[in-house]
Amino acid sequence: MPRFSIAAMKSRKAKPKIYVRKARSSDREAVFKFCEKTWSWGDYIPRVWDRWLKAKNGRALVATINGLPIGICQLGIDKPYEVWLRGARTDPDYRRIGVATAITKKCLEYAKRKGAKVARLVTESDNLAAQAVLQKLGFKPIAEFVEMVTENITEEKSRNSRWVEKNETEATWKFLHTSETHRKAAGLYTILFHWFSLEKQDLKRFVKRQKAILHENEKGEVNGLTLIDETTVREWRENTVQTCYIDGGYDATLDMIKFLKNHCWGLGVKKIYGFTCNRKPITRALEELGFKPTDSTEIVYEKRI
Ligand SMILES: CC(C)(COP(=O)(O)OP(=O)(O)OC[C@H]1O[C@@H](n2cnc3c(N)ncnc32)[C@H](O)[C@@H]1OP(=O)(O)O)[C@@H](O)C(=O)NCCC(=O)NCCS
């Protein structure tokens, strides 16, 4: 049973005052309680709560009504000018009275004070409530991504794919800037479900760690790039790898993913998460190699602040 009548709360007279403040560890119990049934499988908030509260490069905010925590959101400062919002949750008994709107506005104020120029977040294509809130707050959808998965890790032969060498970073960077996929992806790459702007320093980091695969054409020019990461090993305690960014035509993608599969097969990796911008030549190549898509897509929203 709702602790207040939503109809009464929505009427102007009874509309309760919503306060937004920094989250405290004492909010834990109330927050975990209203997050219990966010999704059919529960929620990931209890897993990240302590880390969010301690984060030096971010802030978790809580909305309260009459002192009771009824909503949360976390903001992470990824780069001096870009922030990432996540974990927007409103207690089901307090929805549609402006809680998420109030917290998001405070997050944006905080981000602006910290010098950020852009705020981004992701929501699933079937999350109409979140999309409605975002639209009302002036966020715009900028790119669509899919998550595809395979556990079919086989030995493969690739022809024109290899790890990017340090001295090829410039040519790879140039390729990205002529690429339609890079434009469609809004210049973003992902680690887990968190998207970042792909800058030269990021590419250099992937190259240095041997996490960047290139594909070259018959003329020896770069015409494909795949970036990978293994944060899933630590975060999800799985022997898995994810693609953070895939760029190239059907043939280039097919060859790079064969190279990746072969690499994973050699290491005994059990699963590959294929995150990619939603582009047909890329998703067709992944499907050809046994990757299965999830039901919904991921839409990244952005707001200039
Ligand atoms: C999405 C969510 C955070 C919205 O929280 P909320 O506090 O109810 O949102 P608000 O009251 O600020 O909504 C503001 C406006 O967004 C729109 N909106 C919000 N929920 C909506 C819904 N279910 N259907 C249609 N429009 C909706 C409305 O225009 C609403 O204004 P109105 O009520 O005056 O018409 C909440 O539904 C929730 O916790 N969902 C589960 C977790 C989730 O999906 N999080 C987002 C992940 S990206």
Protein model, in words:
The protein has 305 residues and is an alpha+beta fold. The model has no long low-confidence stretch (mean pLDDT 95). Helices cover 33% and strands 33% of the residues. The longest helix is centred in the C-terminal third of the chain and has 18 residues, at 250-267. The chain is elongated. Residues 38, 71, 88-90, 95-101, 123, 127-130, 132-133, 136 line the site of coenzyme A.
Identify the CATH homologous superfamily of the largest domain: Gcn5-related N-acetyltransferase (GNAT)
Low-confidence stretches: none
SSE arrangement, N to C: HEHHEEEHEHEEHHEEHEEHEHEHEE
Distance between the ends:
39 Å
Structural class of the secondary structure composition? Answer: alpha+beta
CATH topology-level name of the largest domain: Aminopeptidase
CATH class of the largest domain reads Alpha Beta
- Under the CATH scheme, which architecture of the largest domain would be assigned? 3-Layer(aba) Sandwich
The number of helical elements comes to: 11
- Would you tell me the overall average pLDDT? 95
Largest sheet properties: 13 strands, mixed
What is the 3D shape?
elongated
List the helices and strands and how they pair.
Elements: H1 6-10, E1 19-22, H2 28-35, H3 45-54, E2 58-65, E3 68-79, E4 82-90, H4 99-113, E5 118-124, H5 128-136, E6 140-150, E7 161-163, H6 169-176, H7 180-184, E8 188-191, E9 194-197, H8 200-208, E10 212-216, E11 222-229, H9 231-235, E12 240-248, H10 250-267, E13 271-277, H11 280-288, E14 292-293, E15 298-304
Helix pairs in contact: 10-11
The chain binds coenzyme A.
